[in-house]
Amino acid sequence: MSVSHPAIEIDHLSCAFRRSEALHDVTLSIPTGCVFGLVGLNGAGKTTLIRHLIGGLRPRTGRVRVLGEDPTQTPESVMQHVGYVAEEDVLPRWMRVGELIDFMRALYRNWDDQLCDKLLEQFSLDRSTKLADMSKGGRARAGLLVALAHRPQLLILDEPSYGLDPIARQDILEAVVRTASDEGRTVLFSSHLLDEVSRVCDTVGVIGGGRLLEVIATEQLPERYCEVVGELSIDDLAQRELPGFFGWQNRGREWSVAVDRRAYPDEATLRREIGGELVHEVRPLSLERWFSARVNDRELATIPRTPAVEELSA
Ligand SMILES: Nc1ncnc2c1ncn2[C@@H]1O[C@H](COP(=O)(O)OP(=O)(O)OP(=O)(O)O)[C@@H](O)[C@H]1O
């Protein structure tokens, strides 16, 4: 397969289940070699988006390309180069680890026995263990092993650490990083856990109510945005419709707001605009605060909306 195209291309993808819209006009391009974190609250649309990538759902509106191909037209060819770990614990429990490996090995032309043995050791897995007798974390490791051992060009992990203990999570993270560091590999990783997303991903996209709200390189976050924390009078501040403000939060007597730094030439101007005496601190925006600001500000309005502010100060 040629690598001149992005690993994942999604154009204006929408999806509805009966009358309820799960994805709304999603456009996203993930270049080869990127480790991309897809974050969103429960029901945001992460799994629905991923199901389109693995050919499990056919787009009714919009277009999806994975490694340059339509995953619903040529699923065998696309999935030869994709490693996928589902959100649910779906491995056949009647199999032993060795049987699962033999089964998957027969499916993938690029299966790498040496890598498989290495991962068995690294994940402390034994070929003779029955999947039914393993912990959830053990089965997650087995799922990751078979997704990695054919050296996929694209690794898609749907909530890989959901419900896992920190040690199992660490294994998964390490495997993701190693896979990504292999030349030219791409990883799409959906997660609720922002700390692991910030550790592993170079780019992050936030999805809310089926809309892709923003995509940003994690290293760009502190230079693009800051968080301003200050003393009450939030109503007064909100009425002034300052540009670049989003995701207001009230914490006791303090308020916090995310600010797009591009709306202000420097921090002194920003403080002056707010009214310096109201500002306690201007600090880089953390991934966690960016996430909460975006999901609480779906329209990406540049000005705070009065009803939201009233709710906050109630
Ligand atoms: N097969 C389906 N039939 C009907 N509604 C569905 C179906 N699959 C998903 N949905 C709905 O689509 C929306 C998005 O669901 P999705 O599973 O993609 O979210 P998610 O971000 O993966 O959530 P979670 O983090 O809880 O797994 C939800 O409102 C969900 O109820």
From TrEMBL:
<dbReference type="InterPro" id="IPR003439">
    <property type="entry name" value="ABC_transporter-like_ATP-bd"/>
</dbReference>
<keyword id="KW-0547">Nucleotide-binding</keyword>
<keyword id="KW-0813">Transport</keyword>
<feature type="domain" description="ABC transporter">
    <location>
        <begin position="8"/>
        <end position="234"/>
    </location>
</feature>
<protein>
    <submittedName>
        <fullName>ABC transporter ATP-binding protein YtrB</fullName>
    </submittedName>
</protein>
<dbReference type="InterPro" id="IPR003593">
    <property type="entry name" value="AAA+_ATPase"/>
</dbReference>
<dbReference type="Pfam" id="PF00005">
    <property type="entry name" value="ABC_tran"/>
</dbReference>
<dbReference type="InterPro" id="IPR027417">
    <property type="entry name" value="P-loop_NTPase"/>
</dbReference>
<keyword id="KW-0067">ATP-binding</keyword>
<dbReference type="GO" id="GO:0016887">
    <property type="term" value="F:ATP hydrolysis activity"/>
</dbReference>
<dbReference type="InterPro" id="IPR051782">
    <property type="entry name" value="ABC_Transporter_VariousFunc"/>
</dbReference>
<dbReference type="GO" id="GO:0005524">
    <property type="term" value="F:ATP binding"/>
</dbReference>
